[in-house]
Amino acid sequence: MRRMTARPANAHQARLLHLLRDDGPNSRAQLGDRVELSRSKLAVEVDRLLETGLVVADGLAASRGGRRSHNIRLNPGLRFLGVDIGATSVDVAVTNAELEVLGHLNQPLDVREGPVAVFEQVLSMAAKLRASGVAEGFDGAGIGVPGPVRFPEGVPVAPPIMPGWDGFPVREALSQELGCPVMVDNDVNLMALGEQHAGVARTVGDFLCVKIGTGIGCGIVVGGDVHRGTTGSAGDIGHIQAVPDGHPCVCGNRGCLEAHFSGAALARDAAEAARQGRSPELAARLAANGGLSAADVAAAAAAGDTTALDLIREGGTRTGQVIAGLVSFFNPGLVVIGGGVTGLGHTLLAAIRTQVYRQSLPLATGNLPIVLGELGATAGVIGAARLISDHLFSPA
Amino acid sequence: MRRMTARPANAHQARLLHLLRDDGPNSRAQLGDRVELSRSKLAVEVDRLLETGLVVADGLAASRGGRRSHNIRLNPGLRFLGVDIGATSVDVAVTNAELEVLGHLNQPLDVREGPVAVFEQVLSMAAKLRASGVAEGFDGAGIGVPGPVRFPEGVPVAPPIMPGWDGFPVREALSQELGCPVMVDNDVNLMALGEQHAGVARTVGDFLCVKIGTGIGCGIVVGGDVHRGTTGSAGDIGHIQAVPDGHPCVCGNRGCLEAHFSGAALARDAAEAARQGRSPELAARLAANGGLSAADVAAAAAAGDTTALDLIREGGTRTGQVIAGLVSFFNPGLVVIGGGVTGLGHTLLAAIRTQVYRQSLPLATGNLPIVLGELGATAGVIGAARLISDHLFSPA
DNA sequence: CGGCCTTTGTCCACTCAGTGGAGAAAGTGC
DNA sequence: GCACTTTCTCCACTGAGTGGACAAAGGCCG
User: Fold this and answer.
1) CB-based burial of residue B111 (10 Å sphere; 0-12 exposed, 13-18 middle, 19+ buried)?
2) Could you report the per-residue pLDDT of A113-142, keeping only the tens digit for each?
């Protein structure tokens, strides 16, 4: 199917598209109230958008006491593909132009198998979603990868946990395969975008989004925009020193936060505790599955295992120490905690909060909410869809 | 004397004023090359600026092979006042509209004497500068204070080292006294603005400016703009934990960077070393002056005193540890070190560099210059002048 | 049902910022 | 003195945007 390739011709049209995306269908009249445009001008721009097909008029809005208005909405046939490649699994979702998730698949997959194998998988998942009827084709795709990205080109750079991905032209290649525009970004940044669009961060201009999964990263939003840094590695907080002369880390240093607390570190510490007989609960799980994961620790903690709880608390304290420093430095209006370990839930959150509120200055923490992300696994894919829609809804 | 109060009427005029400020006098023709405007439009806007008096035409430019062009420059009579209030001294300077320093005074002064006493001093210094003939009056003033500021209102908030300043309406009060527009900001942010305008950071969009004086702070520039944070306390890195269970700090925690390295901490450690007989050089200075300051440590180090050098190196290492974390997080394109301790010079810089390059990931440090600020004590006052000129050179 | 009100959508004359070309003004170089 | 270049001014023209008039469409109420 031939997809839309139109782009807004000017800033007014871009503004309208963003409004329709974020606030849903709207009447001409109400759009006129929000945008600073005369009715005439608005009518002209809306007509042009209708011509491009990006926007359609469907039915009449409810009366506000006079003539009923025609409803304007983004073309309901538009489809975005959101892909969130994690270290150990992939999420693929389809959204409409309002970024509502219409279909969502998740599969375990080791990112170390390399870009070719991963994208084969991603494309087959996308095909499966198409076959399920939620989409006939895609008008754009956003891709999140678990490592730094040279954003303008859409190419991963020196990703420590992604051997074989360095310099792989993700944007170029996927754009070819999918036949639509593609944007690539760090998965953490996309999680931040997702929470900003549809989650807890809707009303905040400056916030941090800490993702604790296999690794640890942090999305930075300044004045509503994602800060990616000079080389695209901003937010790479997993290798900030949390414990002087602590555990050795894959990066070559000692005491990195990631070496002390992350999905991988937690599994390692849990296995050690089990073997040392400090936790019957964990030992039972180790014997049953032949291995332990962060989920096992979460389950054991939920079952009241004190060793598991201690592991989570200590990790939260370490993470809180690092976040406290970032809060002093950046003075955000909100801190969001997300990622795979949100299963650890409020035990983790409480430990982080305690540490941050204790260690940062009152002026910075006084009115600082620290909350769990509310979108879970969909944050990444929604953020991915938003990334590409932001691109397509801007003048070329 | 009646001062100019005109402001640019639109974005084009603002653009022109900024160009004239940053690149100096210019011909109409050359301005036309830089701005995206037709000759006609440019002529109209320049004429209007001439009418306001913000800009004057003086003489003819050199020929470029044809008719000679009239030179356009910012009104050479415009004067900005830049005030940099430190913890232990005040800098006051007068600049022209191109932010060149025409006169500069410095006086020791304890900020804890409170706003009334300090501003009395500042006003008398400003009067002295006026009397010296560099200015007849001021068209605007920028003020830097050593603590967080609620920027839109120009009011210090909860400044730990500035008792008596909390909530004092600095902007309001000084605007009354001086009879001109005033803007207030954290001194560290102004140092960053200064280095951005006329120092080492001229070409960098994202950078950090670490000021080590009586305390430690960090100016954050994102995309060319200063990031002040949600409550104006961004960059307050002096209270990031550098040493677990380290020295107690005035803020109530232990191990804050500021408690281990800053002008005050360095003086304290030096005095202790002197009393313990570890450094004859420092002991001699202690005996001579009855006390020690950071400058004494610098002098002792310059004289080859190993204890003094060790103190500086250790402080640099601590600072480097914190900066390494910030570099991982923020991924700046440049780090500037400034403040009173730049007297410690390259010993300090080397220690910081070593630590940052060792502890941060190669992707973030690969092309990261870490340099000393090149403006010294004038960075703050130039930044202050720039703050107010940015304000006055923007449409009202 | 039929006025009378409100809201919505369309049309159109008018304003105003901005463009680009013509040509005068002011120099340079031979 | 003449040809050429650059600067500056003038002016007709374009095109975006405005705001008012008016038609269309519906609700409210006697």
Assistant:
1) buried
2) 999 999 999 999 999 999 999 999 999 999
DSSP line for B64-98: SSSSPPEEEEE-TT--EEEEEE-SSEEEEEEE-TT
Strand partners, B372: B337
Nucleotide nearest to B64 (CA to C1'): D6
| A236·B333 Cβ contact <8 A | no
Is residue B128 very low, low, confident or very high in pLDDT (cuts 50, 70, 90)? very high
Give the gap in angstroms from C-alpha A163 to the nearest C-alpha of chain B.
15
A-contacting residues of B 80-139, CB under 8 Å? Answer: none
Angstrom distance, B386 CA to D10 C1': 38
Going B298 to B300 to B302 to B307, the CA torsion angle's sign is negative
- The H or E element containing residue B29 is helix B28-34
Res. A263 pLDDT band, cuts 50 70 90: confident
Residue of B nearest to A147 (CA): B363
Residue B253 predicted with pLDDT over 60:
yes
Is B329 close to A326, i.e. CB distance below 8 A?
A: yes
In the structure encoding, which two tokens stand for residue B98, read together? Answer: 């191109």
CB contact under 8 A, B329 and A244: no
| Those residues with Cβ within 8 angstroms of residue A302's Cβ, 6 or more apart along the chain or in another chain | none
pLDDT level of residue B340 (50, 70, 90 thresholds): confident
Residue found by looking up tokens 């005491």 in the block: A255
Classify B373 as helix, strand or coil: coil
Query: What is the pLDDT at residue B70?
Result: 86
Decide: residue B304, CB within 10 A, 0-12 exposed, 13-18 middle, 19+ buried: exposed
What is the DSSP code string of A263-303?
HHHHHHHHHHHHHTTS-HHHHHHHHHHSS--HHHHHHHHHT
User: In this structure, how many other beta carbons lie within 10 angstroms of the beta carbon of residue B283?
Assistant: 21
Output the CA torsion sign for A259, A265, A270, A275.
negative
Instruction: Tell which of B230, B239, B253 to mutate to test the A interface (max A CBs under 10 Å).
Output: B230
CB contact under 8 A, B367 and A239: no
> Nearest C-alpha of chain B: how many angstroms from A241?
7
Q: Are the C-beta atoms of residues B151 and B185 closer than 8 Å to each other?
A: yes
% of chain A exceeding 90 in pLDDT: 70
Residues 6+ apart with CB under 8 A from A51: none
Instruction: Report d(CA A170, CA A189) in Å as an integer.
Output: 17
pLDDT per residue over A334-385, tens digit each? 999 998 766 677 899 999 999 999 999 999 999 999 999 999 999 999 999 9
Query: With 0-12 CB in 10 A as exposed, 13-18 as middle and 19+ as buried, what is A50?
Result: middle
Give me the residues of A, 225-284, that contact B with CB < 8 A: 227-237, 239-241, 244, 251, 253
